[in-house]
Design brief:
This protein has one domain (13-94). Helices cover 51% and strands 11% of the residues. The protein contains two helices and three strands, in the order H-E-E-E-H. Strands 1-2-3 form a three-stranded antiparallel β-sheet, with helices on one face. The longest helix has 31 residues, at 66-96. The protein is elongated and about 50 Å long. The termini are far apart.
């Protein structure tokens, strides 16, 4: 999976480099999540389990379909991706002293 977006000429070289770096981080994180959380298995009619982390994901019993299981699993992967990106951002903040991407260094 790749993210292919044309960067407009309105961006400065610094902004374009930051955008490209951030895109690479997100793409790498997405690949890592797909490796760590590759698939799910049905446990019962109202439960699936992530084969990567063994998390139990509930499916409404009257809506126990593959489509709903897929949605629940995608939500699980998305939450894991958000957590991974948040941890990465926190590590970057600790390393650089920046409070947000592109922000000025925090006052000492």
């Amino acid at each position: 999976m790749s993210i292919d977006i044309e960067i407009g000429s309105g961006l400065s070289n610094e902004d374009a480099a930051h955008f490209a770096a951030r895109t690479a981080v997100i793409t790498t994180a997405m690949q890592r999540i797909q490796e760590l959380h590759p698939a799910y298995s049905w446990v019962w009619t109202d439960e699936i389990r992530c084969r990567g982390c063994n998390a139990s994901l509930d499916i409404p019993i009257l809506a126990s379909t593959n489509a709903n299981a897929d949605k629940a699993f995608q939500a699980h992967q998305s939450a894991e991706l958000d957590a991974l990106l948040a941890a990465d951002a926190k590590a970057d903040q600790a390393q650089t002293g920046l409070s947000a991407p592109g922000a000025f260094p925090a006052a000492a």
